[in-house]
Amino acid sequence: MKMEKILVFAAHADDAEIGMGGTIAKYSENKDKIITLIFTKGEKSHPHMKEEVIAKQRKSETKKVDKLLKRKSIYLDLEEGKLKQYLNDDKLLNEIKEMINKFKPTKVYTLSSSDPHPDHRSVNEITLKILEELKFKGDIYAYEVWNVVEDNHAKVYIDITETFAMKKKVLKEFKSQRHFIYPLLPLVHLRARLYGKRYNCKYAEKFYKIK
Length: 211
Description:
Elements: E1 5-10, H1 15-29, E2 33-40, H2 51-69, E3 72-78, H3 90-103, E4 107-111, H4 118-134, E5 139-143, E6 154-159, H5 164-171, H6 178-199, E7 204-209
Parallel strand pairs: 1-2, 1-4, 2-3, 4-5
Antiparallel strand pairs: 5-7, 6-7
Helix pairs in contact: 1-5
């Protein structure tokens, strides 16, 4: 089987794990190469803590998840809540283009354009703009995090029955975000079961095929 090169774009450290942690784990089991590009430090998730402290903690958690998923994460260290302003930032766009040209991904995953979080939508815009300018020939998918409405693209379901336990395990590694993630776990479970029924399996994740 040909080795895939998977590039995942995320606004925050836990986005990819919430939306496609089971699929990433499947790629890992297949020994595919996986890179997650994280736009922000996530420094504003705890207003009562110093930003540099929470940013350091989130990076430490990401390193633990990287080991479990056998992937590499790269932080762009951009300011949380202000990603929209980078849509026409040539320096940033060229930096990401260089990473893509160096890694040569076969598949790219980005956040959904229908996600209610503004940073998530901005990552979608930035990603698609870059890929269009590069005339990227590979597959492009969008994954869900906080979606309540669906994207206007073809739906693709991935069976994660064998890797759902790993998805839950890596989510629990983001201990600094437990006040967000732990209440989210029942929804993650429910969504995986619902998508599994649609795909005729126990657990599944849904993606939108952009290209």
